[in-house]
C-alpha cells in the first residue's frame, strides 16, 4: 500500500509541476490566437443578460479554455504510464477496464465537448457565441447514456447504496435512467457554478481530494491516481485563475470535471454508499443549479424572474459582495461539507466513534 501511495503522489506532483510550467506558455498561446472570453449577451432564461454583462464586462478578452491544458496533461501522463510500463519500470498503466476506462472516457469526452464550445465562443460563432443549448445537451446526453450503459451492461451494476441511512436498493434497468439523469445534473451543475475567478477550481480541488481519499481507502488505487493527476493539474490552473484571473476554466474544464465526478460516484458506490454523502459534498453545486433552474423555469413558463440574476454566486455579486469574498467563503463552506462527507462515509464501517 505504501508503494501505491508513493505512485499516486509522484503522478500528482508530475501533473502539478508540468502544468505549472506549461500554463504561462499556454496563456501566451491563447493570447496570440486571440482566444479571449466573449461575454454573453443573451441569458439562458431568455432576453438580454444585462446585469451579467455589467458585472463581467471587464473580463472580456481574458483567455479561456483553461481546462484544455488540464485535459492535455492528463492525456500526457496516461500515455507516460504506458511508456513506463513498456520500459519495465512499473507493472501497471492508468488504463484498466474495470476501474479507469469509464472515468477516463467521461473526463475526455465531456472535456472535448467543452473545448469545441469554448472555441466557438472565442470566435464568436453562433447566435449564442458557442454551441447552442440543444446541440450541447444532445452530445451531453449521448456521453451520459454511454456512461450509464457501461456500468449497467459492462460492469454489471444495477444497485445503488443509500447508506448510512438506508441499505442497498436494486433498481434493475432503471439504474440506467437514474445514473443518466444524475450525470447530466452533475455536469450542468459544475458548468453553471463556473462564473467567478477561482470558484470552481477551488471547489473541485476539495471535492476531488475527498473522492481521492475514499477511492484509496476502499482499494480503487488506479482511480485514485487519475484523481491525483487531475487534482495536480487543477491546482496549477488555480494558481493562474485566482482573482484577477489570467485564464478562465471554460466549458472544457467544467464539463470534464462533471464527467469525471459523476463516473467516480458510480464507481465508488459499487463498494461503499456514496450517494447520500454526495448530496452533502456537492451541496454548493446543487444550490447553484437549483437557483438557475428556478430562474429559467419561471422565466419560460410565467415570463417572470424570481431572482434579479442567477445562479447563486451571481446573485451574491449583484447584492454587492466582492468576488474574492464570495469565492473564499464558498471554499470554506466546501471544506466543512467535505469533512461532514468523510464522517458519513467512515461511519458506515464504524470507523468513527
Fraction of residues in β-strands = under 5%
Give the helix tally.
13
Q: Percent helix among the residues? A: 55-70%
Q: Largest sheet, described in full?
A: 2 strands, antiparallel
Distance N terminus to C terminus? 25 Å
Helix/strand/pairing class, anyone?
Answer: mainly alpha
Tell me the radius of gyration: 20 Å
For the largest beta sheet, what order do the strands appear in spatially?
A: 1-2
Number-wise, the strands total 2
Question: Low-confidence segments, ≥5 residues, pLDDT <50?
Answer: none
What is the number of domains?
A: 1
Q: State the shape.
A: globular
| Integer average pLDDT | 89
Q: What letter string, H or E per element, gives the SSE order?
A: HHHHHEEHHHHHHHH
Keywords:
single chain, 353 residues, mainly alpha, 13 helices, 2 strands
Task: Lay out the secondary structure.
Layout: H1 2-32, H2 50-56, H3 67-86, H4 101-122, H5 133-154, E1 159-161, E2 168-170, H6 174-193, H7 199-217, H8 221-241, H9 250-269, H10 275-281, H11 283-302, H12 312-318, H13 323-347
Helix pairs in contact: 1-3, 1-8, 3-8, 3-9, 4-5, 4-9, 5-6, 6-9, 6-11, 7-8, 7-9, 7-13, 10-13
What does the model show?
This protein is an all-alpha fold. It has one domain. The chain has 13 helices and 2 strands; from the N terminus they run αααααββαααααααα. A hairpin with a 6-residue loop joins strand 1 and strand 2. The model has no long low-confidence stretch (mean pLDDT 89).
Amino acid at each position: 500500500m505504501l508503494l501505491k501511495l508513493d505512485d499516486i503522489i509522484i503522478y500528482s506532483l508530475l501533473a502539478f509541476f508540468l502544468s505549472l510550467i506549461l500554463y504561462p506558455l499556454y496563456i501566451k498561446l491563447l493570447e496570440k490566437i486571440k482566444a479571449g472570453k466573449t461575454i454573453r449577451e443573451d441569458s439562458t432564461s431568455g432576453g438580454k443578460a444585462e446585469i451579467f454583462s455589467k458585472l463581467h464586462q471587464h473580463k472580456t478578452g481574458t483567455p479561456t479554455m483553461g481546462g484544455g491544458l488540464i485535459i492535455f496533461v492528463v492525456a500526457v501522463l496516461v500515455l507516460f504510464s504506458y511508456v513506463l510500463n513498456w520500459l519495465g519500470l512499473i507493472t501497471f498503466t492508468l488504463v484498466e477496464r474495470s476501474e479507469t476506462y469509464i472515468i477516463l472516457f467521461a473526463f475526455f469526452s465531456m472535456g472535448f465537448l467543452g473545448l469545441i464550445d469554448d472555441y466557438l465562443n472565442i470566435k464568436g460563432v453562433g447566435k449564442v457565441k458557442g454551441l447552442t443549448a440543444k446541440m450541447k445537451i444532445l452530445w451531453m446526453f449521448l456521453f451520459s447514456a454511454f456512461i450509464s450503459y457501461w456500468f449497467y451492461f459492462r460492469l454489471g451494476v444495477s444497485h445503488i447504496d443509500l447508506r448510512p441511512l438506508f441499505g442497498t436498493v436494486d433498481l434493475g434497468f432503471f439504474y440506467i435512467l437514474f445514473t443518466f439523469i444524475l450525470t447530466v445534473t452533475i455536469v450542468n451543475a459544475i458548468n453553471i457554478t463556473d462564473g467567478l475567478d477561482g470558484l470552481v477550481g477551488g471547489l473541485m480541488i476539495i471535492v476531488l481530494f475527498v473522492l481521492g481519499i475514499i477511492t484509496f481507502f476502499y482499494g480503487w488505487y488506479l482511480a485514485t491516481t487519475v484523481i491525483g493527476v487531475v487534482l495536480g493539474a487543477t491546482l496549477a490552473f488555480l494558481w493562474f485563475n485566482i482573482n484577477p484571473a489570467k485564464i478562465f476554466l471554460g466549458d472544457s474544464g467544467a464539463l470534464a470535471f462533471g464527467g469525471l465526478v459523476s463516473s467516480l460516484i458510480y464507481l465508488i458506490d459499487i463498494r461503499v454508499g456514496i450517494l447520500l454523502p454526495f448530496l452533502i459534498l456537492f451541496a454548493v453545486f446543487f444550490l447553484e443549479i437549483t437557483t438557475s433552474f428556478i430562474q429559467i423555469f419561471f422565466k419560460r413558463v410565467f415570463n417572470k424572474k424570481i431572482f434579479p440574476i442567477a445562479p447563486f454566486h451571481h446573485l451574491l455579486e449583484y447584492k454587492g459582495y466582492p468576488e474574492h469574498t464570495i469565492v473564499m467563503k464558498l471554499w470554506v463552506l466546501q471544506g466543512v461539507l467535505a469533512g461532514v462527507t468523510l464522517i458519513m462515509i467512515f461511519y458506515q464501517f464504524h470507523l468513527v466513534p
